[in-house]
Specification:
The chain is mainly alpha-helical. Helices cover 52% and strands 5% of the residues. The protein contains 19 helices and six strands. A six-stranded mixed beta sheet has the order 1-2-6-3-5-4, covered by helices on one side. Helix 9 crosses helix 16, helix 10 crosses helix 18 and helix 16 crosses helix 17. The longest helix is centred in the middle third of the chain and has 27 residues. It is globular, with a radius of gyration of 21 Å. It starts with a helix and ends in a 20-residue tail after the last helix.
């Protein structure tokens, strides 16, 4: 993994922070747009990656030329399909996601054979047929991927501009309105950005927890299904939005606090890289040295905020629509069972899961 992390920045497996999480099920990274074709071949075919969750908004995606390269390998889930994820029950989730991936296979087959009749499948809420990039397209991959492998990319923005604006304007509407009327739009925008800089990364996380609750719930539901795994979660740096999602998963899966903090802090190096600093330097009113870091106190403060305001991780997740059934589903699909631990190493295996074999998740179709 480390070797490929040089070309895919900030890439690592969730199991590195908690050995009770099955390796190869949940990955995190910065935007994978800098990946070479060799790296993509390894991740897609060697690691059998099925799903990408992109936490950036449409503006960020549009500025990333590498995103178009990824879409030659992934079928983009529609906004309708993403909306429907919030309507399904935990008990039927695997079947629903299997139907979604099945629709991708059908679309691929019809692209290769337009005269092929539609397969008669019962109608599922998130099943939607969309034609992928044809194999002979100018954007087609330069290597030959595994045949008939359905892959999906979900774009679920956290910290989208609208949600951030509402969070930043809370308690400041009159002040910003006054600035807008007396000094104009640009100064009003500067006032909002100065407030964002003042609140820092911890304030950003608090706004996401409150204002992007639906997006967080949708992301966790995708991760929870064995039919979507392996899953790669990323934003731009793979540090803040991705770090928050992984912290929630780790907290739910019982990862010790010091391991969660260490995993979060590993993103500090990429944030302080030339690429990382340049990203924040484009924003005139943000203090680069503050925003490019991944300090331990930010993720500690975020988890303490969840405990103090919401009564703990289980209550917070239930409040946003990720109830105990979904929570149990995520835990069961990602973590190694007690029986597996004891069968390999006895009861002492709780501290070392390195001998547990990698069990591939169920086929999506």
């Amino acid at each position: 993994m480390a070797g490929f992390g040089r070309c895919i920045p900030n890439l690592r497996d969730a199991s590195e922070a908690n050995p009770r999480i099955r390796p190869g099920r949940l990955l995190r990274s910065a935007t994978p747009s800098s990946a070479t074709e060799r790296d993509l071949a390894h991740i897609l075919d060697g690691m059998h990656l099925r799903t990408i969750i992109d936490l950036r908004d449409e503006t960020e995606e549009a500025l990333d030329p590498g995103d178009q390269q990824l879409l030659t390998h992934f079928h983009r889930a529609s906004k309708y399909q993403i909306e429907c994820i919030m309507k399904i029950e935990a008990e039927s989730a695997d079947e629903e996601f299997a139907a979604m991936f099945g629709a991708v296979v059908e679309a691929q087959q019809r692209a290769a054979d337009p005269d092929r009749p539609h397969t008669a499948l019962r109608r599922l809420s998130i099943r939607e047929k969309r034609r992928p990039v044809p194999a002979n397209s100018a954007q087609a991959p330069s290597y030959t991927p595994a045949a008939s492998v359905p892959r999906l990319k979900f774009s679920i923005p956290l910290a989208a501009r609208g949600a951030m604006a509402r969070g930043l304007l809370e308690g400041e509407k009159l002040k910003v309105a006054s600035v807008f009327l007396t000094k104009g739009k640009e100064e009003a925008k500067a006032t909002i950005m100065r407030k964002m800089d003042e609140m820092g990364l911890l304030g950003l996380n608090k706004i996401i927890l409150e204002r992007s609750a639906k997006g967080l719930c949708t992301v966790l539901r995708i991760i929870a299904s064995s039919r979507t795994q392996p899953v790669l979660v990323h934003c731009f740096h793979g540090k803040d939005r991705t770090g928050l999602v992984l912290a929630l998963v780790h907290r739910l899966c019982g990862t010790p606090l010091d391991s969660i903090v260490k995993d979060y802090a590993e993103s500090d190096a990429h944030g302080q890289s030339e690429q990382g600093r340049a990203h924040f330097a484009r924003h005139e009113y943000l203090t680069v040295d503050k925003w490019c870091r991944a300090p331990a106190e930010v993720i500690i403060g975020t988890l303490e905020h969840i405990d103090e305001v919401y009564g703990g991780i289980h209550n917070y997740l239930s409040n946003i629509g990720f109830d105990r059934r979904w929570q149990d589903k995520l835990i069961n699909s990602l973590t190694i069972t007690h029986s597996e631990l004891t069968s390999v190493q006895g009861t002492s295996a709780a501290t070392d899961c390195s001998d547990i074999p990698h069990t591939p998740p169920q086929s999506p179709t």
